[in-house]
Amino acid sequence: MASHALRQRNFPLQRPGFRLLIIALNGCIIYYSYFDPGFSVAGLPAENWTRTLKGLAAWAARIILPACLFQPFSVLEGAPRLSLTDSVVVQGAIIRVDLSSAAALDTATGTFMKISLPFIRSGEGSFYTLAGVDLDARPGIYTLQVKALGPGGKSETAALKVKVRDASFPRQKLTLPPAQAFPDSAAQARIEREDQLRNRSWSRWAPGVFWSGSFIAPIEGEMERFGSRRVINGVPRSPHTGVDISAEEGTPVLAPQAGTVLLTGDFFFTGNSIYLDHGLGLIGMFFHLSRIDVAAGQIVEKGQVIGAVGQTGRATGPHLHWGVRWRNTRINPQSLLELKLD
Questions:
Q1: pLDDT tens-digit readout, 285-329
Q2: Are 272 and 310 spatial neighbours (Cβ–Cβ below 8 Å)?
Q3: Helix, strand, or coil here: 148?
Q4: Judging by DSSP bridges, how do beta strands 223-224 and 107-112 pair with one another?
Q5: How far is CA 330 from CA 32, 244, 277, in A?
Q6: Domain 171-337 belongs to what architecture?
Q7: Which of 61, 93, 163, 220 gives 20 to 30 Å between its CA and that of 303?
Q8: Domain locations along the chain
Q9: Could you tell me the pTM of the whole model?
Q10: Where is the M23ase beta-sheet core domain (predicted)?
Q11: What CATH number was assigned to the domain covering residues 81-165?
């Protein structure tokens, strides 16, 4: 691999104040100059250098600079290489990010959309992590940045661009009993206590992973309404942060992956609920259950029955609400099922 050191050449000048720089960085050439047409350089007429520089600049703009902008960037030899399951995603998506290097790597960390990303070793010199896009993220282009450390503290960096598109979430109109749509002061106090309890629980995720292989669906059925903009009794409310899966009451609900039970309880909006920590901040939520078969602190295996479908809390019929958060980013559970984690 060619050296990534910064290379600069200063051309001889007949008068002070003129400078021409040719810079090469990471295989990309960038031309930059301060130029006075009244000067001559290296014995050549100034107008000849003007034409030359204009030609080089046009060539660089068409070919070199685009390659610089969209390639992984590194400052050291043996640069790490990044690959994504998809570089164009919609709001609510989660993708796998793979990191590999010919050089030995000890650890790796990353950031995406201001969220820290923990990397998991997948082989010699290779790691992977997950990157999520919140359902309310603005469409646009975002940078995923990675820093890897090798033996002796040697640091290497890489980056890739991810394009986020609008998911065009639908609108959902619901009509509920007034007591559910507009909680009174006592119910509102209960809701606030429950929110505080959940927030404390979410901050205590496990430092390692429980999952092994790909995720499975907790029940069979069509997954609907993720991200839908809800209007309840004519009043716009917060978006729907999970998928609803219709099923008969009492249908067993399975753990999509191994994990430890963070929290269970009967909550105002979500009824009988289970919060399952899959590790490193990947939290699964299962709402409106008719029964709960696990307890806080219990470790469960993938495919284990954790409860049953119901219609407790604010629900209009029997169904399972399955929600997923990745380090507090609200993602579509169906996107998680599409990931290959074997």
A1: 999 999 999 999 999 999 999 999 999 998 989 999 999 999 999
A2: yes
A3: strand
A4: unpaired
A5: 44, 15, 15
A6: Distorted Sandwich (2.70)
A7: 93
A8: 19-70, 81-165, 171-337
A9: 0.74
A10: 239-333
A11: 2.60.40.1930
